[in-house]
């Protein structure tokens, strides 16, 4: 389906050719997902101090973070994280060299 814009829990973005962790229900990924859930719960308390008052999470989102510890990955796709990824994140795209002929081919 094309490239994947991936943001980690610190809102650092990468452009990847494939989605990370394609086999989501693997036991090998359980421990990192649990640790990420714990980190996101801690981050929900400190993000207001770290990034600014407008990023402070309410008790509903903190409850969702607890759900992310009980069910690893459950809190990863809430709208609040997508908004923060857009506001705080940045993508590093690979450098591509384009010749003038390639640019003309796109126009034609």
From TrEMBL:
Q: Give the molecular function GO annotations.
A: triacylglycerol lipase activity
What organism does this protein naturally occur in? Noccaea caerulescens (Alpine penny-cress)
Q: Which InterPro entries match?
A: OBL-like
Kindly provide the name given to this protein in its UniProt entry. Answer: Uncharacterized protein
| Gene Ontology BP term (one) | lipid metabolic process
């Amino acid at each position: 389906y094309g490239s994947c814009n991936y943001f980690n829990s610190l809102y650092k973005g990468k452009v990847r050719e494939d989605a990370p962790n394609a086999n989501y229900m693997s036991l090998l990924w359980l421990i990192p997902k649990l640790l990420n859930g714990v980190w996101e719960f801690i981050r929900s308390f400190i993000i207001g101090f770290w990034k600014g008052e407008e990023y402070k999470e309410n008790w509903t989102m903190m409850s969702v973070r607890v759900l992310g510890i009980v069910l690893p990955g459950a809190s990863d796709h809430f709208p609040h994280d997508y908004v923060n990824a857009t506001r705080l994140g940045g993508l590093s795209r690979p450098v591509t060299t384009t010749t003038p002929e390639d640019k003309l081919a796109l126009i034609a």
